[in-house]
Design goal:
about 800 residues, alpha/beta, nine-stranded mixed β-sheet, six-stranded mixed β-sheet
């Protein structure tokens, strides 16, 4: 407390001059001495001086200043992980992580009670969502067991932050094993709206926002990282096979098994196939054995021969092991469609090159495609530096055996692939026979190369009419020189190829069987862009009127619509023709996109062989995949090829999905180019699902066509598949936000420290109490003046 003075009029000089003037009047004009004794004069003078002193104090506006400190409102939040990974018993005394959480909270009960009084203390449990856990007398009410199927640490932090906007949140205490495990958002989730919006939030992303807001995270670490001897688990972690195979062909199934905690123990891996009665029947098995208790991955391979057409379910499984942590990851499977027949392909090549090698690798991975490879031999008696390879191959053509009797016969092959081979390497009757095979219905794939199309001299052959380009004689590269030499002789502005790097783009606005990597058009285009750019694309000439561009090539830096055709299709008689104008698609395979390379070449073969279409009058269902994880969405398409004279406007197309429990649900279909698409999201129940589609005539309700397909929902336990704790995440969250990371036994000390810090959260206030405008001050001043006047009047000293 202290006294504060401040002059009226804001000027000390003015106040002092005024007071001195009054004092001079009092002293120069005292009471009349003739009428008063000296004692009375002193009394009156004293009263005047007292009034002057009081007025002097009034002119300095006296006030008393008080300083006080008041505690500020503050919140503290505790977040407790209740996901299934907290049930892992890897704490001291073989307790589960959740039991360790309970013990740590029980030991901190007295401190929690004080914190509840000092702070606005809130507690929440979380898994995928965030749920209030009341705090009563220092006890936090938690559920009996951790049952959450996912752990969304980022979402829990994000919702806590957003729900306390505008409040003073002093910190978040996080009790967890630190492992974020979440799926993509889906409809029907039972949790708070904010958690659904932010469930894919990364913990570190939210931590950076908390750091900017000066809100520390205090983490309490539970569980052990890496390999824990008390854990035992086996799992089928991968399962790969084609979803289509021809009768009597072999289907190769490959995958991986993870063995954890079982040393020198036989682990059987069993292949089962659905029989005619719908029961799973073991057809093969193998045994794995790990030499360590640490996690080990073992690849496996099964070969199964498909004998009868139809849709078959295949599973690879491991019987439950003694002491196993989790049993739901012991099996993986899917559905395979077995169809009659098979594909035979003849691949004719003139020059050994990377493109041919990787095309064969991709096609050989399809069990239903058999490729016969034939390469025209060069004349080995001539040194390579003496003549071009095209000349050396042409010299052998007249004397070698003809391909016509055994290969170029209508119906012998479903499709032909012609690589980089000059027209002079063919016998004249061979190209004529090849054109006849295509005209009769075989497919033809023409690959880009130095000796392909007009450059290879095909403009004046029997095959020219089947090529989807107008082949010009001026583009013919003489057999005696190379493509590089010929390009040097061309005038400016004219060329036979474009050098890369060149990105691949599908035809804008269209969805073609050959250009679809993703169902969504925008994602499909981005997927093509993500592939390794091509080294070069050939330019054979102008497109024929009936030709259709499916894929384009464009320089990565260029903008606007692409102008360089890459994949061109056309029809020749009853056969389909595709021209793929590059020799560098092998770069997709070697840059980590081998699956896209395999899918593209498989589809190109199926399309040229005419197997991408369904027969007239039939309804077909196509699934994006035949196996999905629990809770994920399945996208599918339905197509109908009308019979001659049918109008699709007269029909209604419906689709439904039957779940493993027998319940059925209709699925809305969206019309798009070439068919209809649908999305099924209710996959919470593991097991076999059946999709059924029907085409019904609107007039009388009769069923015109129907189709069905099946898919499998896998019960994948994200929490227990990889149960190890991620201690580093907990430590990083605390470090980034300038908090603290502690072990469970240190929780009480941490909470005590937070209780001590509560006293620092106070507000200092200064209170000013004025004295000059109070009643006692006024009454005293008025009393002095009135008393002085009353005495003067009584003593006769009033003039």
């Amino acid at each position: 407390m202290r006294l504060s003075l401040s002059p009226v009029w804001g000027s000390w000089l003015a106040v002092e001059v005024f007071l001195l003037f009054l004092l001079a009047i009092i002293l120069l004009f005292p009471p009349r001495q003739a009428l008063l004794s000296s004692g009375k004069r002193r009394v009156l003078t004293g009263l005047r001086l007292a009034a002057w002193l009081l007025l002097a104090l009034l002119c300095h506006l006296p006030a008393v200043l008080f300083t006080t400190s008041e505690p500020l409102p503050a919140s503290l939040v505790l977040l407790v992980d209740q996901s299934q990974s907290m049930s892992v018993a890897d704490e001291m005394g073989r307790r589960s992580r959740f039991e360790a959480v309970r013990d740590a909270l029980d030991q901190s009960e007295s401190v929690l009670k004080q914190l509840d009084e000092a702070y606005d203390l809130e507690a929440f449990s979380f898994d995928r969502g965030l749920y209030p856990s009341p705090v009563r007398d220092g006890k936090i009410e938690l559920q009996s067991e951790p049952t959450g199927e996912e752990t969304a640490i980022g979402a829990a932090l994000e919702e806590t932050f957003s729900s306390h906007a505008g409040k003073r949140l002093t910190g978040i205490v996080l009790l967890s094993d630190g492992s974020q495990r979440t799926r993509v958002a889906r409809s029907g989730h039972q949790g708070t709206a904010a958690s659904v919006r932010g469930q894919e939030s990364l913990p570190m992303t939210t931590a950076l926002r908390l750091k900017d807001a000066h809100i520390p995270i205090y983490t309490v670490r539970f569980g052990r990282p890496g390999n824990v001897a008390s854990m035992q688990d086996v799992a089928i972690t991968d399962f790969v096979c084609n979803d289509r195979v021809f009768c009597n062909n072999e289907l190769v199934l490959t995958g991986q098994t993870r063995i954890f905690g079982y040393k020198d123990v036989d682990v059987p891996v069993i292949l089962s196939v659905e029989n005619d009665e719908g029961q799973m029947e073991e057809v093969d098995r193998l045994t794995l054995k790990s030499e360590t208790e640490a996690e080990a991955i073992f690849p496996w391979r099964f070969v199964w021969q498909a004998k009868e057409p139809g849709q078959k379910k295949l599973t690879v499984s491991i019987p439950p092991m003694q002491g196993e942590l989790l049993g739901t990851n012991n099996e993986l499977g899917g559905f395979v469609t077995v169809v009659e027949g098979g594909l035979n392909i003849l691949y004719v090549e003139g020059t050994r090159r990377f493109e041919q090698k990787y095309i064969r690798l991709s096609l050989d991975s399809s069990a239903d495609i058999h490729v016969d490879y034939w390469r025209s031999p060069p004349d080995v008696t001539i040194r390579p530096e003496g003549k071009t390879e095209a000349e050396r191959i042409a010299l052998v053509a007249p004397t070698r055996g003809s391909l016509v009797p055994n290969c170029l016969v209508p119906g012998k092959y479903h499709a032909y692939i012609i690589g980089d081979m000059d027209a002079t390497a063919w016998k004249p009757e061979e190209l004529k026979a090849l054109a006849q095979c295509v005209d009769a219905g075989s497919g033809l794939i023409l690959l880009g190369g130095d000796r392909s199309f007009a450059a290879g001299g095909y403009g004046k052959t029997e095959l020219a009419d089947a090529v989807p380009f107008l082949l010009r004689d001026v583009d013919r590269v003489p057999p005696g020189i190379t493509m590089a030499q010929f390009r040097e002789s061309l005038p400016p502005g004219r060329d036979l190829l474009r050098d890369g790097p060149l990105v691949v783009l599908p035809e804008p606005g269209e969805r073609h069987y050959l250009s679809t990597l993703e169902l969504d058009a925008e994602k499909n285009q981005e997927h093509w862009r993500s592939l390794e750019p091509l080294d070069r694309v050939f330019m054979p000439g102008d497109l024929k009127p009936a030709a259709r561009v499916v894929l384009w090539a464009q320089r990565g830096a260029e903008s606007g619509p692409p102008e360089l055709p890459l994949l061109v299709t056309s029809q020749y008689g009853a056969g389909r023709v595709a021209a793929f104008l590059t020799d560098s698609s092998w770069k997709w395979y070697t840059s980590g996109h081998d699956q896209e390379h395999k899918r593209f070449w498989r589809r190109l073969i199926l399309w040229t062989a005419g197997l991408d279409e369904i027969p007239a009058g039939e309804l077909a269902i196509s699934l994006e995949t035949m196996r999905v994880d629990k809770g994920a969405s399945l996208e599918f398409s339905v197509a109908y090829r009308p019979k001659e004279g049918e109008n699709l406007a007269d029909f209604e197309l419906t689709a439904s999905v039957m779940a493993p429990d027998g319940t059925s649900r209709n699925v809305s279909l969206l019309e798009e180019s070439g068919g209809y698409s649908g999305t099924y999201r209710d996959t919470e129940l593991p097991g076999d699902y059946r999709i059924q589609a029907a085409l019904v005539r609107k007039a009388n309700g009769t069923e015109q066509a129907k189709a069905q397909s099946r898919f499998l929902v896998r019960e994948r336990n994200m929490e227990l598949d990889q149960p190890a704790a991620t201690i580093s995440v907990m430590e990083n969250l605390a470090a980034v936000t300038e908090g603290q990371s502690v072990a469970p036994e240190q929780l009480k000390d941490l909470l005590s420290e937070l209780l001590t810090k509560r006293s620092e959260l106070s507000e200092v206030r200064q209170i000013r109490k004025t004295l000059y405008d109070t009643w006692p001050f006024f009454l005293l001043f008025a009393g002095l003046l009135c008393t002085e006047w009353f005495l003067r009047k009584r003593w006769g000293n009033v003039g």
